[in-house]
Design goal:
The chain is an alpha+beta fold and 444 residues long. It has helices at residues 6-27, 33-53, 56-73, 80-112, 125-148, 150-162, 166-190, 194-267, 273-285, 306-321, 340-360, 409-418, and strands at 325-330, 365-372, 376-384, 423-430, 433-441. It starts with 5 loop residues before the first helix and ends with a strand.
């Protein structure tokens, strides 16, 4: 340990925790006066604790912040994205602090011509003060870079979300964090020199950088592969959609042709009502001319957002394969400016749940309605109910209208909505129908 005043150690520990907290709230867009106040209190508390428990205090600090986030959000699950940010920033701050202290040790050694850099013999309190100042400067630079390249980081985060890679990133950064903690704790126990500790940290940093480059390249390759697969799937859906439109057009032409012939044939009939009735009965029995395919899917052309149109068309034909009619209702052309990934995932879950319920209870139709109110847009999926449903429990993990321990989809929906301030959910039972609604607040 550095032989300096205890108060100086407390300030150093407080600064490290405070920087970690502020940057985490900044990156996750939750920075406010409330979170700043929470950061001050928790940083002061753990700064004091760390004086006695050393580097192990950082582990407790991270665990505490994960639990605190769950309590503030009133959720029983960990927000993986925010946790990844917290752990990664903690790693960066730990490395930054060690390197900053060592740099100023070297500077003081040059000034005083004293090259004894053993961590137990440094007596310069100014080293700690300057290291703290440098850490704050580096954190400000980091925040500026994040803000300047905001779109890049948001796009990267979107790709990780789209292909469900946040869990893999969580285990990776957790492994790096635990490895660094073990390294620092062992160095404390063995009382290694500052030079040796610095060398270990530099090697560890290079390892992290190389791993980051590999992960970035792997992510890009994986995203490219998935985008290609999605494009192929969308082309297949488009081909099926066009064939459906062509069939509907053919059916309508056939009906028009048959109807014309029927009218002409009726003009040649006598005015006997019995003849008309007999002829009418024959037409009803031969209902093939009336068998024009449901054209509600044609409404999909009014959805100007390709991913949303794609998922609805896909679910339409999936429903047809199960002899279930998916009725699409729109009041105008639909253009969604908001990020469509989350919307597509939620709508897909809504329709999947409705289809499963309809198939289980031998129901023959479900409805998807999209209404544009100008400043907000609502997408609703409705299906008939044959049993009571506890609407207040729909979004609880494990609860489902389809059976026990199957209610994962809707709990995931609530998690997605909680992470996006422009989305909201509603569920209601009306006229013996369960109506699930996703609301989208459009940015001006």
């Amino acid at each position: 340990m550095i032989n300096v005043n205890v108060w100086l150690l407390l300030v150093q520990n407080f600064s490290n925790y405070f920087i970690i907290s502020l940057l985490t709230y900044f990156v996750t867009r939750k920075l406010s006066w409330r979170t700043i106040g929470i950061s001050v209190v928790t940083s002061a508390f753990f700064g004091f604790i760390t004086i006695f428990v050393g580097n192990a205090g950082i582990i407790v600090f991270v665990i505490f912040n994960i639990i605190l986030a769950m309590l503030l959000q009133r959720k029983i699950w960990i927000n993986i994205q925010d946790t990844n940010v917290l752990i990664l920033i903690t790693i960066l701050q730990m490395i930054s602090n060690i390197i900053s202290v060592f740099i100023f040790r070297v500077i003081f050694a040059l000034i005083n011509n004293d090259w004894n850099l053993n961590s137990n013999n440094i007596k310069y309190g100014g080293i700690i003060v300057l290291a703290i100042v440098l850490n704050y400067i580096l954190s400000i630079i980091f925040a500026i870079i994040i803000k300047k390249d905001k779109s890049y980081f948001e796009n990267w985060n979107l790709q990780l979300s789209q292909y469900n890679m946040h869990n893999q990133i969580f285990w990776l950064v957790s492994g790096l964090f635990i490895s660094l903690e073990i390294l620092l704790i062992v160095c404390d126990i063995e009382q290694v020199t500052a030079v040796f500790l610095f060398a270990l940290v530099v090697i560890f940093t290079i390892f992290i950088i190389l791993m980051g480059v590999i992960i970035s390249q792997f992510t890009s390759a994986y995203v490219l592969k998935q985008e290609t697969a999605n494009e192929i799937k969308q082309n297949q859906q488009l081909e099926i959609y066009l064939k459906s439109i062509e069939k509907q057009y053919t059916d309508i032409r056939r009906f028009r042709h048959d109807f014309k012939n029927i009218v002409l044939s009726m003009s040649e009939m006598d005015s006997d009502k019995n003849d008309f009735k007999e002829y009418y009965d024959q037409l009803v029995e031969n209902n093939s001319i009336m068998d024009v395919q449901d054209s509600s899917i044609v409404e999909a052309k009014r959805i100007l957002n390709a991913p949303l149109k794609g998922i609805i068309v896909q679910k339409y034909f999936e429903a047809n394969s199960k002899d279930i009619s998916l009725k699409l209702e729109l009041d105008s052309d639909i253009q969604i400016k908001h990020n469509s990934l989350s919307i597509v995932r939620i709508v897909g879950i809504f329709i999947d749940n409705a289809l499963e319920y309809a198939e289980k209870h031998d129901l023959n139709s479900i409805t998807c309605a999209i209404v544009d109110y100008g400043d907000n847009l609502e997408i609703s999926v409705a299906n008939e109910l044959v049993e009571d449903v506890n609407v207040s429990r729909l979004f609880k993990m494990g609860y489902s209208t389809k059976g026990e321990d199957r209610g994962v989809g809707l709990s995931n929906v609530e998690r997605i909505v909680d992470e996006d301030d422009n989305l909201y959910l509603d569920a209601e039972v009306k006229n013996d129908q369960l109506i699930m609604t996703l609301g989208i607040l459009e940015d001006n």
